[in-house]
Amino acid sequence: METIKDIIAFLMDRKKYWLIPVVLALMILGVLLIFAEGSAIAPFVYPFF
Question: Following CA atoms 35, 41, 43, 46 in sequence, which dihedral angle do they give, to the nearest 10 degrees?
């Protein structure tokens, strides 16, 4: 969680607000891949990749 706080602090401090959607999309993609690894939703997620 410290890394997420650091990223948010960096974006706010440097006023790089345009990076927020990019960071959120990468985080959602990462979470989706983690949950799709060994779950029942895997067959529904794999067609996206």
Answer: -40
**Rounded Cα–Cα distance for residues 10 and 48 (Å):** 31
15, two tokens: 């006023």
> For the whole model, what pTM was predicted?
0.58
Q: What would the pLDDT profile of 5-44 be if each residue is shown by its tens digit?
A: 888 888 888 888 888 898 889 988 888 777 777 667 667 7
* Cβ–Cβ < 8 Å for 32, 26: no
What distance lies between CA 21 and its chain's CA centroid? 10
Domain residue limits, the chain? 2-29
CA nearest neighbour of 46 among 22, 24, 27, 38: 38
